[in-house]
Design a protein that fits this description.
The protein has about 180 residues and is mainly β. The protein has one helix and 13 strands, in the order ββββββαβββββββ. The model has no long low-confidence stretch (mean pLDDT about 90).
């Protein structure tokens, strides 16, 4: 299997029934759309292995799925808590104004005055708005090694330039 960039889109839960079904937890915006992506890759003993979804259905508030080759409860139990990934190239293409969160990781963040805050290392979901975790290589003049910058498009986030791998923010470096 060629080593393409993988994107984690969900996780397998506990086994369901005796015929190899598993609970499925989706990280996709529309939970059901996880089943639209094919094939799935599941990390087994440290390596991604390809699986096809044989069948799936709604169960209570969530989903359950059956993977080809998993036909017994014991087989399914071995997959509990494994991440579900897909090849990045099967994600829908976006317009120039849109982007996937994963594209922001590693981008340099500068203030509108040109001060380099560091690189995006994580994104936190807080409920009210998402927050960029921006880490500097060393403590800067303000004594900061890491900043939390709210992702408020237009208000704080002024520009995202994919080609330059740069984000411009209206943010005080002292925060």
């Amino acid at each position: 299997m060629s080593e393409q960039e993988k994107v984690v889109v969900g996780k397998l839960g506990s086994s369901y029934g005796i015929r190899g079904w598993l609970k499925v937890f989706s990280y996709t915006e529309n939970a059901e759309s996880i089943f639209d992506y094919k094939p799935w890759f599941i990390k087994v003993r440290g390596e991604w292995q390809e699986f096809q979804v044989e069948d799936w259905k709604r169960h209570g508030q969530g989903w359950v799925g059956k993977l080809n080759g998993l036909d017994q409860r014991e087989d399914a139990q071995a997959m509990t808590n494994a991440e579900i990934a897909i090849n990045a190239d099967v994600l829908p293409a976006l317009s120039d104004e849109e982007f996937y969160w994963r594209e922001l990781f590693g981008m340099e963040v500068f203030t509108t005055q040109g001060y380099n805050l560091g690189k995006v290392t994580d994104i936190l979901e807080t409920g009210s708005n998402d927050v960029l975790v921006v880490a500097a290589n060393v403590k800067d003049a303000f004594g900061k090694k890491e900043r939390l910058v709210p992702f408020l498009d237009g208000q704080v986030i002024k520009l995202i330039d994919r080609s330059a791998q740069r984000i411009e923010v209206d943010w005080d470096p002292g925060f």
